[in-house]
User: Fold this.
Amino acid sequence: MAGTQKLTRTTLRSGLGRVRGLGSAKEGVQHWWAQRVTAIALVPLTLWFVASVILLAGADHATVSAWIARPLNTVLLIALVAATFWHAALGLQVVIEDYIHTEGTKLVVLLAVKALLALVGLAGIVAVLRVAL
Assistant:
């Protein structure tokens, strides 16, 4: 071949979208990062929680309540509950968006799932605070 053509990559994203790193939904990268950050946070939190439960096995109610009331344990338990339910909401959102194709149904299911997860997560945080305080 006498001359080589320069290959260019065509894209359907706008220049601004490429700069911001956003897809057509305007939140893809942010959603992806949030899911990864919560997953990474859940690893040490879950290991800490499982180890704590093992160490507290057989303890009476007063001992477990006193353990929860320690400031570090209270904060870590709240972080565990918040990260768990946030991660679940992010993951379920992806599943719902991928498998429900009717826009109205998708919106209703997304709102219901997020509301349910928010309420249950809030109930978990309130339960930790009630025991701690």
Notes: The first helix runs from residue 15 to 20. The two ends are 79 Å apart (CA to CA). DSSP finds five helices and no strands in the chain. The helical segments are 15-20, 28-56, 61-69, 71-99, 103-132.
